[in-house]
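Predict the 3D structure for this chain.
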Amino acid sequence: MYHLPKNVILILSLFLSTISFSQTVDSSLAEVANVLLEQKVTGYGEIDKKLGLYKRDSLQLQYLVDLYKEKKYLEGESYVLNAMGEYCRNTSQYDKAILFHEQALSKAEAVENKQLHVRSLNMLGVVYRRIEDIRKALDYHQEALVLAESIEDRTIVVKKSIAVSLNSMGNIYLVLEQYDLAAQRFKKSMEIEESVGNKLGLAINYHNIGYTKEATGDLEGALIDYRESLRYNDEIDSDLGRLICNSTIGRIYILQEKYQKAVKIITKALKIGEGLRDNFHLSDVYLNLGWANLELKNYTLADKFLKEGLTLSKEFNLKSAEAEAYKHLSALSKDQGQFEKALVYQKQSYELNENISNDKNFKYVNDLIAKNDQERYNLKIENLEKENATVKQTLKRNKSIWITSSIVFAFLAIMIYILYRQRLLNNEKKILTLEQDMLRSQMNPHFVFNSLNSIKQYIISNEQKNAVHYLNKFAKLIRKILDASRVKVVSLGDELDTMDLYMSIENIRFSNEINFEILVDEEIDLDQIKIPSLVLQPFLENALWHGLSSKKGEKNIKLSVTKTKNDFVTIAITDNGIGREAAQQIATNKIVKRKSIGISLTKNRLTNFVKDFKNSFTVHFIDLKDQFENPSGTEVVLHIPLR
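Done. Predicted structure below.
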């Protein structure tokens, strides 16, 4: 069988209903509607005074929405759409209710009417709370509360909207079992309702406060508040209020084991509820009545009412009520000796409660930050209002405090400056120490002695040309080292020239067996890149004396400069030596061990160099392997930031 989509059914039902509306429109309503239209009334309160009597008549509401839509009176259309949404909510037509409230919200946004905007948000929140979509309900009420509190002209309508938001958020806290937070919201809401004399708001808040007391075990306190809520509902002649209060009072009687009284008052609620079509609350009435009969051992009646409540809760997706129904049906089956059936019901109740509990916890954790932010926002507003009321007295009292504070501030500023200067001096001292250590490292006596000794061998061997050539290189290298000691940074081009000289001198000791080459990407401007002076020498020295000194055969060192990613220059030093593991083994077996500080000193200098940079440097040592996984050298890769 073919089924029409829900939205199509809704549109058709609205269309068909409009055909007969024109024949049933109240003449006084038409007159009032036209007055509002002519005057283009924008305030929610003024519109409500004129149209409030018709909010429960769907025929008249449809006439109004058609009229105002045709005349493009968006304020009136928004009001009536919300009223239609409330009607659908109270008759358990939740999908239709959401659709009407969303349309009302779009109209309010179009005319930038904050009062109607807040009303629409609150109404959406109430519907989503009914269907237990806690996240959406909280979001809508939170948004409504913030928007309402931003309105400077706090009319009665605005105050009522704030009270509705607070009350609804309190109900959400009830669902989340945060009873202290719920009670706080209800009390704030009640204070506002008392200030504007709204008996309906007082009835609702008394009932909700009673629920928090019931949930925490204070049954007598809950009963007092439920009865006070019932008194207000009787004053305003609200059948829905009487239904809710009688049902919850009956539940208290059950908990107090006054089962006959419970059946009597809940039956009274059932008679009221059968004419209201509010299945949300009617499901609770059926469940409470079934529960009371179960306690009285009236199993037939208990089964009837519990299954009525279960049917409604499943039809309208009321998960909490459904779980409650299964719980009582399990107890009923157990009393009747139907243990397998009882177990099935108990399992269904447990699974529903587990899902609801997980949902609650998940939503509560995700929304707790937003709630706390709103609380801090409200506290800030209250503090500002108090501060404005006492500003003159505060200025006089604080005059001496300002003077004292100024003195203390000046003293602290001086102390901070002294500490800052001390830190700068310590930093400069650290830098100076690093540079001195660097110079001592580069002017290593062993290096100087060995270099001069090698040149001396050329002289003894009567190789004057080579002696002069390498002596010039040695002198030039010493001069560069001394020049570098006077500056913090040099261009990468100067650094590479210095390293070329250094390798030429060291190569003498290796009988010029080392093949050293420098490769630079063409796109790199060496003069524009700055690095700490002589920062590459320790890595080349390691490659020479740890990697190649013990190697037989061809000895190669390659220094390459590339730009692999933005804001970084990459310098790689690769040798085909014996590898770090073998070098470490040789060093361990040496009788005279020399402590090398070159690498750690270089890392400290680089750390100081990039302290104000956006990025930091990195140094990686890579052990190279041949095709047989034997050591074939070492590669050192430096990533140095450019700025």
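Residues 1-23 have pLDDT under 50 and may be disordered.
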